[in-house]
Request: fold
Amino acid sequence: MTKFLPVLLGTLLLCGCASEAQHPSLASAQPTPASVATVAADDNLNAVAWTQTALEHDLIYQETFRSAQSQLLAALKDRNWDALPAEDRSTPYKHLKPAVILDIDETVLDNSPYQARLIRKGGEFNEADWAAWCKEERARALPGAVEFTQFAARHGIAVFYISNRAQDLDAATLDNLRKAGLPVSGPEAFLGLGTLLPGCDQVGTEKSCRRQLIGQHHRVLMQLGDQLGDFLSVLTNTAAGRVQAMAPYKDWIGTRWFVFPNPTYGSWEPSLFNNEWSTPREQRRQQKIQALRVE
Reply:
């Protein structure tokens, strides 16, 4: 009998397994793999989490603003120094008053709470919610922004802010800038979408006309922003078109132009799906995945 014992035990074990499969209650004492919940992907989660929690984010902003500040007075003394692209400079600048131009959103003001709300709701950007957030006037200054702009103002350098916020947000934007400690000389310091330059046709939200308006009376020492459109016009918003637009000015990066990282939104994103925001969300996501390099 003993030589058949292993076979008999194996048979009994198999029967036991079969019984448990037919009657799950018999196996309740055994650990079972947890069921995996299906979670909808949110492309912006990591980007916003990094923006809000990573010390590296704050250090990059501090480093960039400090670098700009360390070069600002030398730029002020150099009468041949100007930071406007050729297509935006129509007035001789050597004897004009000095100025710096800064974008607002994700350059001097942190709007990541608005992005965080979208993630929690599972939604996407919409004008109504964005306007409501702006009117709260609660956006904080980004690290280094107050120090840089106050330094410029103390040295007689005009500080201008160009933003694509809608015209009805002008007052709230100016109030938010002041609350955050950023210098605002007056309403003229902010050039939103409602700012017009006679004879200059603004294409969409391009900032060229507003840069030209500042350039009529000021020598621009530096520009600071988080998107290519904060520095120059990008006529073709494709990967190749963006490279081509920036090519003549690559040497200006870190001297006349200072760029901040923005992984949450920007013109870089629609360039990955042919600038077609009407494309369904999942299709846009797939096109972005296809744009990734794997080697």
Summary: Residues 48 and 116 are 7 Å apart (CA to CA). The chain has one domain: 45-262. The domain at 45-262 is CATH 3.40.50.1000 (Rossmann fold).
